[in-house]
Structures are given as C-alpha cells and as structure tokens.
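User: Could you check the structure of this?
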Amino acid sequence: MRILVLGGTKFVGWHMVQEAVARGHEVTLFNRGLSGGGAWPDLPQIHGDRGTDLHLLDGMTFDAVIDSSCWYQDHMRASSAYFADKVGWYVYISTLSVHDTSHTVIREDDPLPECDLEGPQDPDSMYKRYGAYKAGCEAIAQAAFGDALTILRPGYICGYRDGTDRMSSWPIRMHFGEGIIYPEGDFPFQIIDARDLAAFCLDAVEKHLNGPFLMAGPEGKLMFSEFLDICRRTVKPGCRIVPLSPEALARHGLSTPGDLATAFPLYSRGFPEFAGIFGADNSRALAAGLTCRPISETVEAALRGFLERGDSAPATGITPQREAEILAAEGL
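Assistant: Sure, the predicted structure tokens are below.
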C-alpha cells in the first residue's frame, strides 16, 4: 500500500513509519522538516506546513493517511478538505484525554465533552484544552471520512524515542541510583508501548478497522507497584524502592499535588480529576487484535533510547541527585 504519514520523525510517527516499512508498504512523509535529526533519509519526504502547504502533494496518490501530528482543528479542516476524496482510509491518532478522566472507567462510547469547532486555537491554550482540541479534530475527521476512518485514543505512550521521559524517568533513576523514592500508596496502571500502538495502527490500515479504539495496556491488570518492580528487575535488581509518607515528602518540599505530579511523573493517586487516566477499557481493541508486549520490553527500550541521547538526567521528574539527597537525609 502507498501510505502517507503526517509527521513521522520524532516519536509516535517515527514508530508508525518503522512499522509500515517493516511490513513492506511504500511510505511517504509530510512534515515541516524541523525535527527528527534526519530520520528516514531514504524515504521520500515533502516539507511544508500541514495547515497551508498540502498542495505540495498534488499529483501524488495514496491508499491511506496516518495522521500522528494533528493538534489543532484548523489543521484537521485542511487535511479533511484535501484528503476526503483522495484516499481510501484515514487514521487519526487522538488521545484518551478526549474523555472525562474523572470517571474511574473509560469506554469508547462514553460521551465526549463539547468542543468549540470554530473558536481560536493557539499554543498558549493547547495544553489547557488538549482533550477538547483533539475531540474537535475527531469530529471534523468523522464528518469528512465517515466509515473510512480509524480513531486511536492512546493513554500514555511510552518506549523508545519518548523524549518526555514520563515513564522513562523511573527506570532512568534506577539506572543512575541505588534506590528510588515514591509517594506511598498504590493504584491501577496503564501504558501503551509505541511499537504496539504502531502495530495496531497498521492493522487498522490494512484491515480497515473502523474506530474509535482505546489504546492501553497491558492486556491484564497491572498495579503501579508491580510496574516499579518490573522496572527494578529489568534495570537493576538490587535497586531499593522506598515509599515515603506525605510527612516525609513534605520535609523536602514535596507536599502539594503539583509538587508530586512534577517530581513523580505518572503518579496519579489522590488526583480525582485523573481517576480514570489508567482506567481505559481496552477490550474493544484487544478483540480487534491489539497485542501488548511485556512491560519489561517497554522499560528496556525507553532506557536504551534515553542512554542513546546522552543526557545525564530525565527530561521530567525528580533528578537522581536530588533523590539521593532525600534518601540520605531520611537515613534510608
């Protein structure tokens, strides 16, 4: 198949290209050419702004489009108008955040929040209204492509080339230290490996799987404490995992929800507005063929990607140095 990937050079899109090429598809990328460090030099790439420059694709034909980069509704309007009568299938990578994450269980058919399809959109409001913007993009794509559309709604996407280090920060800290800390307590935990997301995406293209699908793993139940133990066994079996009480954390300036969210990425216990962020019902995707690799493989790949970058600390979360100071101060 001839597949166009919008984006394709950083993280999620990079894995989409990797999977499509591995399956023998003919892949073209359309992006601004501003990131990715020269990824895919042997593949055709058209450089332009997706909001204004899609005409650069005139004369080219594609069987499917994989859209891994759309955040703004005006970009989806441009894509829908251009591709609606030109391609046989469209896949949009949306987000679990289109749903009300205060619900403890989230399913595809839950009502989505209302979104202003005509209102102004800008980078300053993007992160505050991320879910609403993505929901608006979904609605525009649905109107344009109808049954020839797959919508994938992943939660936290993790693994190789994840520059956010939200999940990666935990194995990274284990790699550099002899012990890590976390706020005491436990909760259900879900992530999706970017490779598993890409594999399902290409299945959707090849089999014309009409969405939406919630993209979350593992296939069974997982608790956060189990995730930490998997990280330890994968990275450094001798690493200590030390839960700290709220009082102990407060002694080190980690007392507010904002403090905890910044220091301990993906730790969601005690945040009612995110009660369902790890509560996606993935049964529809599993029934359609989603497979989730062992969490240990995601951990290993994420750590490998970080080490290849050559950074000394994760992009987010408490630093290994600060963590060691807290452990020493607590006599642990």
